[in-house]
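User: Here's a structure from my thesis project, written as structure tokens. My advisor, Dr. K., wants to see whether a designed sequence matches the one we expressed. Can you design one independently, without my sequence as a hint?
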């Protein structure tokens, strides 16, 4: 199984993935109970399911924000289940961009500075990255708002800053947890259009949502229930894998 799981065609592959939260004493929560799942390069997968079914736990493991307590996780063929914290944070910084429901911007920083935050944590020379950060602000339609602070922006604009920030390391994978959860439907649609565009340009997308209309944008949807995948729905054929 391991040799199959580490085939490079899988951008993301989990085998019997488990996550148990230990809360002291005998108190524990089995949030994931053995998830087998694969995402190919360029795919767009939505995760749905009731509250508490394990969606965010799954996304956090995929994003190397947390480690599984059982099973295996291969990212681009590398077994990350056993990596130490430093290796995990390095791989996260190189390969993964995050978008959260609550944007997670730093209120004291400007738009441009918020976009630069991941680079700062990786010790880049920020002066050398200004051009790229301005380009990303333009890409998300905020080129004229570079000096604004988050509280001077609408929710949709704040989420677009978060999208620009998620792209700053040119990650292969974008992970989004309820990215439109705090937005009205029109603004949400604009944010989703941007995510669609990133997928067309080659980014692999995994997005958690409660909203059928949001999930309809993905190539396929996995429905989680009690820490396992209950069923999968294919919305349209997955993209043809590139030759590389
Ligand atoms: N840090 C934690 N410590 C303890 N238990 C946790 C922790 N995070 C999540 N859980 C538990 O794990 C289970 C799955 O939680 P998770 O956040 O993955 O659900 P979810 O599907 O994202 O739900 P929602 O739709 O409400 O966001 C829940 O029972 C939750 O209470
Ligand atoms: Mg959640």
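Assistant: Designed independently from the structure alone:
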């Amino acid at each position: 199984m391991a040799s199959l799981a580490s085939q490079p065609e899988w951008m993301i592959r989990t085998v019997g993935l488990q996550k148990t939260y230990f809360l002291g004493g005998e108190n524990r929560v089995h949030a994931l109970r053995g998830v087998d799942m694969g995402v190919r390069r360029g795919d767009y997968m939505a995760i749905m399911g009731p509250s508490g079914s394990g969606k965010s736990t799954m996304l956090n493991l995929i994003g190397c924000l947390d480690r599984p307590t059982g099973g295996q996780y291969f990212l681009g063929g590398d077994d990350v289940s056993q990596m130490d914290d430093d290796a995990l944070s390095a791989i996260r910084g190189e390969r993964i961009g995050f978008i959260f429901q609550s944007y997670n911007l730093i209120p004291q920083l400007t738009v441009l500075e918020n976009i630069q935050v991941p680079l700062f944590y990786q010790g880049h020379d920020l002066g050398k990255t200004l051009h790229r950060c301005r380009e990303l602000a333009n890409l998300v339609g905020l080129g004229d708002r570079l000096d604004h602070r988050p509280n001077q922006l609408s929710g949709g604009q704040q989420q677009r800053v978060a999208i620009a920030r998620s792209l700053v390391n040119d990650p292969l994978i974008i992970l989004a947890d309820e990215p439109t959860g705090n937005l009205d439907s029109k603004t949400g649609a604009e944010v989703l259009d941007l995510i669609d565009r990133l997928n067309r340009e080659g980014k692999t997308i995994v997005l958690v949502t409660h909203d059928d209309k949001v999930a309809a944008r993905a190539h396929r949807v996995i429905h989680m229930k009690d820490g396992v995948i209950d069923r999968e729905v294919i919305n349209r054929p997955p993209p043809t894998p590139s030759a590389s």
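When you compare it with your expressed construct, this may help: The chain has eight helices and ten strands.
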